[in-house]
Amino acid sequence: MANNFEQFARNSLQFRPSDIRLMLERVHSHVVKPRMTAEELLEVVQGLGFTTVEAFGDQIGLERRTSESWARYGLSRDAAQLLLALLNYRQRLLDAMDDFEKTTQIPLDGFFENQQLP
To answer: Which helix (H) or strand (E) holds 30?
Structure first.
């Protein structure tokens, strides 16, 4: 909690009037904009091979209370956009790995599994 106050104090010293727009957008994103529902999130994490949102959170290093909150209430629009962008990047990487393996016959997915990379 002390770190949050320190960060808040540092940010307050650097506050600019244009920051009000960013703060309002953040509040709007978390309160007004549609969220990714808990059911949609569960579909996403199951598509990644996890049985629960909590299991997904444990694998990527989230605090347990965060993944429990996500499992119950879904994701804010900002977090959902980030998650979907990362999943899109992951799919592009898998496609590139597949193309690489077709050309070279070197299996990269086994390497990533051995390194416990999602």
So the answer is: helix 19-31
- The whole-angstrom distance between residue 58's C-alpha and the CA centroid of its chain comes to 13
* CB-based contacts of 90, cutoff 8 Å, min separation 6: 118
DSSP 117: -
Q: 28-58: per-residue pLDDT in tens?
A: 777 778 889 999 999 999 988 899 999 999 9
Average pLDDT score, the chain: 82
Q: Which residue is listed with tokens 């091979």?
A: 49
- pLDDT for residue 64 is more than 90: yes
Could you give the CA distance from residue 72 to residue 5 in angstroms, rounded to a whole number? 28
Give the end-to-end CA distance of the chain in Å, rounded to a whole number: 31
- What is the residue type of 79? A
Q: Tell me the C-alpha to C-alpha distance, in Å, between residue 117 and each of 3, 45, 90, 101, 107.
A: 30, 15, 11, 18, 15
**Distance separating alpha carbons of residues 100 and 102, to the nearest angstrom:** 5
Crossing angle, helix 38-47 and helix 77-104, to 10 degrees?
20
